[in-house]
Amino acid sequence: IKSENARPNGWTFVDIEGRDLGSYVVDAQKHVAENIELPPGYSINWSGQYEYLLRAQERLTYVVPLTLAIIVILLYLNFRRFAEVAIIMGTLPLALIGGIWMLYLNQFNFSVAVGVGFIALAGVAVEIGVIMLVYLNQAFKAKQAEKPDGLELADLREAVIEGAGMRVRPVMMTVAAIIAGLLPIMYGTGTGSEIMQRIAAPMVGGMVSAVVLTLVLVPAVYFL
């Protein structure tokens, strides 16, 4: 006879396969509420990994906004202009598309580990975007120095192409290094591999879309 909190209790163990834990428990709670009428003095609690999931989700509700707020503050301290901050933060969601596709292709459900992977991806994508903006600003100022009387649209276009072109090799080297470092984690086996795969997957996929973001979208938005 088992008891908890001075009340007798019985446990029902559930193994889940082929879907995520959170949505299963939500459906199970709804089914139980509709089909089971508990006698007086009885209660049902959903425990185990589901409790850990709820705690982790609660932490993520303030960790993610806090992370984004720190990124915005650091960007503003670096550029001292909200225009550059808006360019990077406005285009940042597009860098996450590759991570979402990688989760879909590997049939990974959203989890705390996946959330951590997306936070890391956002940091790397912002870092690459910052370096691109720095080079664009340098090329723009150099073009202004050449023509102090004012720039025409063609001059601005030339400056943007020149600044973006200088970043192609460094961006590709950064992305290649990150992907090469994470691929062994993505396809490795052993203790803890399931967690590590879900952290690495958003970053591996996100690096592909981050290349498009940095080399194509950021210069185009800067030009506009």
Mean pLDDT: 86
Principal-axis shape? elongated
Please give the number of β-strands: 2
Largest sheet: 2 strands, antiparallel
So how many helices?
8
Q: How would you name the oligomeric state of the polypeptide chains in this document? A: single chain
The helix/strand order is EEHHHHHHHH
Structural class: mainly alpha
Q: Describe the strand arrangement of the main beta sheet, using strand numbers.
A: 1-2
How much strand content do the residues show? Answer: under 5%
Helix content: over 70%
Radius of gyration: 24 Å
Poorly predicted runs of 5 or more residues: none
What does this entry look like structurally?
The chain has 224 residues and is mainly α. The chain is 75% helix and 2% strand. It has 8 helices and 2 strands, in the order ββαααααααα. It has helices at 21-35, 49-79, 82-95, 97-106, 112-146, 153-165, 168-186, 193-223; strands at 3-4, 7-8. The termini are far apart. 23% of the residues are buried. The mean pLDDT is 86.
Identify the notable features of this structure and list them briefly:
single chain; 224 residues; mainly alpha; two-stranded antiparallel ribbon; elongated
Concise structural overview:
The chain is mostly helical. It has helices spanning 21-35, 49-79, 82-95, 97-106, 112-146, 153-165, 168-186, 193-223; strands spanning 3-4, 7-8.
Compile the SSE list and pairings.
Layout: E1 3-4, E2 7-8, H1 21-35, H2 49-79, H3 82-95, H4 97-106, H5 112-146, H6 153-165, H7 168-186, H8 193-223
Antiparallel strand pairs: 1-2
Helix pairs in contact: 2-3, 2-5, 3-5, 3-8, 4-8, 5-6, 5-8, 6-8, 7-8
